[in-house]
C-alpha cells in the first residue's frame, strides 16, 4: 500500500501552492505516493490551470485513481485576495491547513506531512502566535522535546538552537544542553533511518578553537558533552572544524552533524545542496518534512518558482513513512 502524504499548501500569498502543484506534475511522485493536498480547492484548480499543469484532482475520499491528486478542501480563501505580502486572511488559512493535517494524521488518514512555506508574521496576524511550523506542530501534538534538522542527500544536520540572535545562541552552547541533544539525535535518527548512526559535532570557534587558541567553549562545554555520551555507547565524535565537518557529512563520513547555531548549519546545507535540502522536525510523533526556503513573496505572481525542494520534501516524507512501516513489521 502506498504511503499517504498530506501536503499543506502553505501561504497562498506566496509560492506555496505553486511549488506544490509543480512538484505533483511529476507522475513518478504521484504514483509512488498517494498525495493529498490540504488547502483550498478553488485556488488550487485555478492555479493549476494558469500553470498548464496536467494534474487530475479528486476530492479526498480514499478512492482516487493511482495518478490522481486528492484535495482535502477547507475552502477558507476568498475568491480574491492580495498576494506578495503578509495578510491576515492567508496567514490564518495556512495555519488552518496545518491543524487539519495533524487531525488527519491523528485519525489515521495520512501517514506523513510535507509542508509548503508559511509566513511567521502572517500566521501571527491570523491569530496564531508561533515562531514557525516547528513550534506550532509541537504544540498541536503535545511534543515537549523537538529539534529542527535538515536532510540533503547524505548530509543531515541537527540544530542546537534555531531563530535566536547569535549572542543568545552562543550562550546556549552548554554541556548539559548539548548532551541532551546528542542523546535525542541518536534516538530520533535511529528511529527515522532504522539503523545505528554516527554523529559528528561541529566546533563553535574557528578550527574548533585549535587547542584553545581561538576560544574556550570546545574544551569547557563541547568536549565534556561528547565524552559523556560516548561513555553511554553513542557513536559521537568531535568537535570538528565547522568549515569542513558538513562537507565530510555530505560525503558520507557521518550520518548526522550537529550544528551549534542556526546559520552554522543552514548556510552549509543551502550552500552545498540548495534546492535539494529538506527541513525535518525531529521528536514529533509524526513524520513532517518541509522546504528549505520561505514564501518568496517577491516572485509570487511571476510563476517562476523552483519546486525542487518541495518535491524533495514529498519524496523524503514518503521514504521515511515507508521505512517506518517496514520497521514496525518486524
Can you characterise this structure?
The protein is built from twelve helices and twelve strands. The chain has two domains: 1-143 and 284-330, Isopropylmalate Dehydrogenase, CATH 3.40.718.10; 146-274, Isopropylmalate Dehydrogenase (3-Layer(aba) Sandwich). The model has no long low-confidence stretch (mean pLDDT 93). Strands 3-4-2-1-5-12-11-6-7-10-8-9 form a twelve-stranded mixed beta sheet, sandwiched between helices. With 330 residues, the protein is an alpha/beta fold.
Can you summarize this structure?
With 330 residues, this protein is α/β, with parallel strands linked by helices.
Strand-and-helix sequence, N→C?
A: EHHEHEEHEHHEEHHEHEHEHEEH
The CATH topology of the largest domain corresponds to Isopropylmalate Dehydrogenase
Number of folding domains?
Answer: 2
Helix content: 40-55%
Major beta sheet, specifics? 12 strands, mixed
What is the CATH class designation of the largest domain?
Answer: Alpha Beta
Report the span from N to C terminus: 17 Å
What portion of the residues fall into strands of 2 or more residues?
15-25%
- Taking all Cα atoms into account, the compactness measure Rg is 20 Å
CATH architecture of the largest domain: 3-Layer(aba) Sandwich
DSSP E strands, number: 12
Largest sheet, order of strands side by side? 3-4-2-1-5-12-11-6-7-10-8-9
DSSP summary: helix tally: 12
Assembly classification: single chain
